[in-house]
Specification:
5-stranded mixed beta sheet, 12 helices, alpha/beta, elongated, 17% strand, disordered C terminus
Length: 314
């Protein structure tokens, strides 16, 4: 497998024939050693130092058409990477040149298929000047991306069960639920649970929608009552562990419905906080660090705007 490391442009104080400064290279080398990441080439996406990223775009508008020199550099980079498998990009411009995306905090740490280089997967992360000079706490984030860039992302089949009736939920219990589940609720401004999901593994999940986008109930009154009774049936099991992200939020809503899990509770947000209390706590951020898969928003075939907040089905 051939791997490339692409930076935005040479640092302002980079030595001749180098892409980064001596200090940035020292830090980057240490991080690559920690990740056991050994790229075959290291290249800049643009050949000369640029003080403002917007200067590489026509009219100074980031994400628009590149100026001729930047467009030529992009084409040259794409041609050079034709037979490469993975490119780790350090910085926003390097990411943009190979993916067309501009929001590094959205795509950082995920594998993105390059629309410019067939077969190339891009793993974006932060620029050397950021993690070497400004934000030292981002270095573990960069190491995580380096580790992910050592292999290609291969999607795995997932099964999402959509019950037609309450009996399907009990059948799911029998067929899939062992001694651990991961649970999540979505709510509305009226403080009602509009949908919930129960995952038993990374490839198996039950999704139950209770209200549509107009907040109208999807189920009959009797069926909805039976759904809550099914959850109470699960909650009564002392041998069933429940996992949450920010458990206080979900449990507060479940408690309002009279559902109080008796088994062990574990919380990914609290676990992460205990490990790195100064870091962001969002589920997307944690996933980009800890799991070798793409975020859900990168697996969906429709844009988030086509759905409600949680991506529910009409």
């Amino acid at each position: 497998m051939k791997t490339a490391l692409i930076v935005d442009w040479p640092s302002v104080d980079a030595p001749a024939n180098s892409t980064v400064s001596e200090w940035e290279w020292q830090v980057t080398s240490e991080l690559m050693k920690l990740a056991d990441f050994k790229p075959d080439i290291i290249r800049p996406a643009y050949p000369s130092y640029t003080a403002k990223w917007a200067n590489l775009f026509e009219g100074g508008k980031v994400g628009g058409d590149l100026v001729p020199a930047a467009k030529a550099a992009r084409a040259k980079l794409a041609a050079e990477l034709q037979d490469y498998d993975i490119a780790l990009t350090l910085g926003q411009h390097a990411m943009f040149c190979l993916t067309g995306e501009t929001k590094i905090d959205t795509y950082r740490g995920t594998h993105v298929d390059s629309p410019l280089v067939p077969g190339l997967q891009v793993v974006p992360t932060y620029a050397p000047h950021l993690y070497a000079r400004l934000a030292w706490n981002e270095r573990p984030v960069v190491v995580s991306a380096m580790r992910k860039a050592k292999s290609r992302f291969v999607d795995k089949p997932r099964t999402i069960y959509l019950p037609d009736n309450v009996a399907d939920m009990y059948a799911f219990t029998t067929q899939h639920i062992g001694n651990e589940i991961v649970f999540d609720v979505e709510t509305n401004k009226s403080c009602r649970i509009t949908e919930f999901s129960v995952a038993t593994s990374s490839s198996c999940c039950l999704y139950v929608q209770l209200e549509d986008h107009a907040f109208r109930s999807i189920w009959s009154e009797k069926d909805e009552l039976d759904i809550w009774l099914w959850l109470r049936f699960l909650a009564a099991r002392r041998d069933l562990a429940w996992g949450f992200h920010n458990a206080t939020y979900d449990l507060t809503y479940l408690d309002a419905y009279g559902i109080r899990p008796r088994g062990p509770i574990f919380d990914t947000m609290l676990r992460h906080h205990a490990w790195q209390p100064e870091w962001e706590k969002s589920l997307g951020f944690l996933a980009s660090l800890h799991i070798p898969t793409r975020a859900w928003k990168h697996l969906r075939t429709k844009a988030k705007k086509d759905f409600n907040k949680s991506g529910a089905i009409d």
